[in-house]
Amino acid sequence: MIIDSNKIDTHNEILIQSHANKLVFLASEIGETENIVQKLIDFQIAIPSWALGTGGTRFGRFAGGGEPRSLEEKIEDVGLLHALNNASGAISLHIPWDIPTDYNAIKSLAAQHNLKFDAVNSNTFQDQANQEHSYKFGSLQNVNKAVRKQAVAHNIEVIQQGIALGSESLTVWLADGSSFPGQLNFRKAYQNTLESLEEIYAALPSNWKLFLEYKNAEPNFYSTTVADWGQSYSYVKKLGDKAKTLVDLGHHLPNANIEQIVSLLLMEDKLGGFHFNDSKYGDDDLTAGSLKPYQLFLIFNELVEGMDARGMNHAKDLGWMIDASHNIKDPLEDLLQSVEAIMIAYAQALLVDRKALEIAQNENDVVRAQEILQNAFRTDVRALVAEARLRSGAALNPVGLYRDLAVRNGLIAERGLKTMATGL
């Protein structure tokens, strides 16, 4: 399904006067807007191939209608998102859930939707059909060297598939760990994991990066072999310059200061990218910004400050991706909401008066520092985000147009009511 650009234009014509009024008012409040709008136009957030269908829990999954049945249909769905917001210009594949049968055809289809291929993701947290060794007791950490070799070989295969697609990074998330005291020798598990990662790292092309994601718990609940940012940092520091830490917002203990983690990893040149989502209790994978919008802003505040301090390109020098599970929402609507929340937090962070904040910090003026941050956070920047979409040929109100065009009903008509997305 492709959204006709004329329908987007018609939608925008209806809303343009109201939008213009909001933009004029906002500009009168904050002053210069052009630089922010251009940064928003440039900023792209990758969509994971596994987030285009309904998610689920260990209690069950309630599939929605019109879900993508193939990699081709997943690319088409990301193309729909990108047409609506012009901020979802990349797709991240999970292997082996989404192995292309014809790489040239898949690349051509992606290009038709103005999409690039973001990081490729390996999977050693599930046993696959015809797999010789099980990952029940871990993969890269496993006490059995044959299991470790199998997991290493899979990651190297994923790199080769990524090369064929034009990707330039590999994301490794490990479920490895233990569920009971005494089950695992922590030191040996670390050493086995590092040895395995070294083999994978050696297979990276010169222009590639390895992102090592961490998670405090689940599916193992006593220990996790890459449990937090410190452990990930320890591994990637040993591996080399092409290895970076990947931060998933839901992979922390409750109330962790993620913005401080971000700041320090940036300072050490070891922050690779983000998986955006939101949570209340654990790795809930809820819509980004739906519960903790101020935290999301504070994270972007540190990102902007840290990236500017290093002279980094906001749009290109880190990996930006959503990692969410849409259990009760339409997945495409949920993703549109997440992208919007991320763009809003980014725009608010760009509003922070850095010079004034630095003065307040140097003078230990705690109240002034808080006021500077909260004034930026409380500024309604939705008109700036909408203006970036408008100038890019996208919709002023992506969710509104999605519903007005009855996109989900169109997908159901094409694919059927009882479809289930592959890979989940």
UniProtKB/TrEMBL annotation:
What EC designation does it have?
5.3.1.-, 5.3.1.14
Q: Which domain of life is it from?
A: Bacteria
User: InterPro entries under this entry?
Assistant: L-rhamnose_isomerase, Xyl_isomerase-like_sf, Xyl_isomerase-like_TIM-brl
Keywords assigned by UniProt, alphabetized:
Isomerase, Manganese, Metal-binding
Q: Which SUPFAM superfamilies match?
A: Xylose isomerase-like (SSF51658)
Under the GO molecular function aspect, what terms does this record hold? L-rhamnose isomerase activity
Domain Xylose isomerase-like TIM barrel: start-end pairs: 101-285
The answer, when asked if Iron is one of the entry's keywords, is no
Task: Give the protein name, as stated in the record.
Answer: L-rhamnose isomerase/sugar isomerase
